[in-house]
């Protein structure tokens, strides 16, 4: 019963189909993990979301939430505007099953850990000062807000790059925004734990005094296998032990990648560029 973790699809449904063909995915035996950013930028957000929701509801897959998935929710619940320069998910917003899709999506986790397999998956990263137990409990705080009665308030308060430093005594929206920014947007972090949410380049172009989050010394979650997406500029490369980068830039014309957790073998299909923005 292999488990495959699959990187950011971003609405490139045809490449997901090709990848599942390549690994000879058998929904009766195999299980899929997705790193989030299922939708946006690519041409088939609706097909992708419907397909993964269907798998998840049959206990054949899990996904974590990425920044683009949260953007869809914010726009879908009318807490952010639809911007045709940056958004390609009008197919979902106009779909007859829009409400079911959004409702399912907002019930997905930000961090998932399988004790038996010995892997965790997150969209962007874990703050270096969080051990896995704390990270799982912080993820639950955000998930409770996303799933609670007043969940639309979360999207009104989601956007922003502040605060930049973790403090266990943070409260309110600042606390939930910091946690969400780490799980869904983090790339670079200073040795002291200050997060930087602007740079998107590869590790060679780290802002001065910043490191990739997974290279920060004394990282408290370094004992665990962690799978992440989000960072297409890494092209799937990460030399830190137990950290697995899976966003290989499908929508940018690179590849869509699956990692088989049981033996660490990677499978990829080449992709044509599907976005200009
Ligand atoms: Mn992302």
Output the number of helix runs: 8
Provide the CATH superfamily: Metallo-dependent phosphatases
CATH class designation: Alpha Beta
Number of domains: 1
Return the string of H and E elements: EHEHEHHHEEHHHEEEEEEE
- CATH architecture identity: 4-Layer Sandwich
Helix content: 25-40%
The pLDDT mean sits at 97
Spatial gap, N to C terminus: 38 Å
Low-confidence stretches: none
By secondary-structure content and strand pairing, the structural class works out as: alpha/beta
Give Rg in angstroms.
Answer: 17 Å
Question: Strands of the biggest beta sheet: in what spatial order?
Answer: 3-2-1-11-12
CATH topology: Purple Acid Phosphatase, chain A, domain 2
Quick one: how many beta strands?
A: 12
Describe the 3D structure.
This protein is of the alpha/beta class. It has a single domain, classed as Metallo-dependent phosphatases (Purple Acid Phosphatase, chain A, domain 2), CATH 3.60.21.10. The protein has eight helices and twelve strands. The protein has helices at residues 13-22, 45-57, 67-76, 90-93, 98-105, 132-147, 151-156, 172-185; strands at residues 3-6, 31-34, 61-63, 111-114, 119-122, 188-189, 195-196, 211-212, 225-228, 243-245, 255-260, 266-270. The strands form three sheets. It has a five-stranded mixed sheet with strand order 3-2-1-11-12. Strands 4-5-9-10 form a four-stranded mixed sheet, with helices on one face. The chain has a three-stranded antiparallel sheet with strand order 7-6-8, with no helix packed on it. Helix 2 links the parallel strand 2 and strand 3 (61-63). Helix 6 (132-147) crosses helix 8 (172-185). The protein is globular. The termini are far apart. The structure holds manganese (II) ion. The site of manganese (II) ion (MN) has 6 residues, from helix 3.
């Amino acid at each position: 019963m292999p488990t495959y973790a699959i990187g950011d699809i971003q609405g490139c449904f045809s490449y997901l189909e090709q990848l599942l063909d390549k690994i000879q995915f058998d929904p009766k035996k195999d299980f899929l993990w997705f790193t989030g950013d299922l939708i946006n930028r690519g041409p088939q957000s609706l097909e992708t979301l419907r397909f993964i929701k269907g798998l998840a509801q049959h206990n054949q897959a899990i996904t974590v939430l990425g920044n683009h998935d949260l953007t869809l929710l914010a726009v879908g619940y009318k807490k952010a505007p639809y911007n045709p320069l940056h958004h390609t998910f009008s197919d979902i917003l106009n779909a007859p099953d829009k409400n079911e899709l959004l409702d399912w999506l907002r019930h997905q986790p930000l961090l998932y850990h399988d004790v038996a397999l010995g892997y965790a998956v997150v969209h962007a990263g874990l703050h270096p000062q969080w051990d896995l137990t704390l990270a799982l409990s912080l993820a639950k705080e955000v998930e409770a807000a996303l799933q609670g009665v007043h969940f639309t308030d979360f999207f009104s308060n989601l956007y922003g790059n502040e605060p930049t430093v973790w403090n266990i005594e943070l409260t309110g929206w600042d606390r939930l925004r910091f946690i969400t920014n780490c799980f869904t947007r983090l790339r670079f972090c200073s040795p002291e734990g200050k997060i930087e949410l602007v740079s998107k380049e590869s590790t060679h172009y780290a802002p001065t005094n910043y490191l990739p989050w997974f290279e920060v010394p004394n990282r408290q979650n370094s004992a665990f296998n962690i799978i992440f997406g989000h960072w297409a500029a890494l092209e799937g490369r990460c030399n830190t032990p137990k950290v697995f980068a899976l966003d290989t830039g499908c929508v940018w014309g690179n590849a869509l990648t699956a990692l088989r957790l049981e033996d660490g073998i990677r499978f990829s299909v080449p992709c044509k560029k599907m976005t200009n923005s």
